[in-house]
Design brief:
- The chain is mainly α.
- It is built from 14 helices and 3 strands.
- A 3-stranded antiparallel beta sheet has the order 1-3-2.
- The N and C termini lie far apart (about 65 Å).
Length: about 250
């Protein structure tokens, strides 16, 4: 343990003196972890995201095996038996239950580098290749969609939210409903809100109040099938777990 603690800053030293290709590869997991993506990241994501982190001169000088060289450089253990980026086999669970759980090769960032990055690079925004590659290769996208919106990458925030919904993320579906509400698309917001209710059992219980508030705003008089005004509707737990909610007839 003493050796590990003593060697903790060494991955940072390796990062600061790495080759341009290795530095570019390492910046993808640094950005991903800082923006709320899971710990284990697929190699295809890291490699493709690195391209916009290279200057044109460095990019022109890449060899055909540049990625293999970069991963080998970053995987070399330093003092304390740590490495800036190490391979880790991690089970992949399909949110859509489209097949059995499989194990795939992923990479994990050194803890010390992650902590240092949160303190020193927190205001930096990843390049375009990062967002495009995340949309292509990742399924843990809800936090990333929010982060894109906070950084005024609004188109990417929209695309990442839709991609997260495709992977079965109900919180992303809620976010899309609120986006439609803010855009004054009431019908679009209502349609998405009903989809959230249809999957209500998968919605986090500690965030159920925000879902009820959304229904109150979209149906202020209650979704009364007889067309008569009613007091503001409070959807019951059963309604949020999948019961059909009649459309607005007020």
């Amino acid at each position: 343990m003493t050796q590990d603690l003593a060697g903790a800053p060494e991955p940072l030293n390796r990062y600061q003196h790495a080759s341009p290709a290795a530095t570019a590869v390492l910046e993808a997991p640094l950005d991903a972890r800082r923006l709320g993506v899971r710990l284990h990241l697929p190699q295809a994501f890291l490699t493709d995201a690195a391209t916009d982190c290279l200057s044109q001169i460095d990019y022109d000088q890449l060899t055909d095996d540049w990625a293999e060289q970069a991963y080998a450089e970053l995987a070399k253990p330093v003092h304390g038996k740590q490495a800036p980026l190490r391979r880790a086999t991690h089970p992949h669970h399909c949110r859509r239950n489209c097949g059995p759980t499989v194990c795939r090769a992923t990479f994990r960032l050194a803890d010390y580098l992650e902590q240092h990055d949160r303190a020193t690079r927190r205001h930096l925004c990843p390049p375009c290749s990062f967002w495009h590659t995340a949309h292509t290769h990742l399924d843990d996208l809800n936090n990333l969609s929010w982060a894109a919106g906070e950084r005024h990458r609004l188109q990417w925030a929209h695309h990442l939210s839709h991609r997260a919904v495709d992977h079965g993320n109900i919180k992303a579906l809620y976010s899309l409903a609120t986006d439609r509400e803010e855009a004054r698309d009431r019908e679009g917001a209502q349609a998405l809100a009903l989809q959230v209710a249809d999957h209500g059992s998968a919605y986090p219980l500690h965030r159920m109040n925000e879902l009820r508030e959304l229904f109150d705003r979209l149906w202020p008089n209650g979704p009364d099938p007889d067309g008569m005004p009613t007091p503001p509707w409070r959807p019951s737990a059963s309604a949020l777990r999948g019961q059909h909610v009649p459309p607005d007839a007020s």
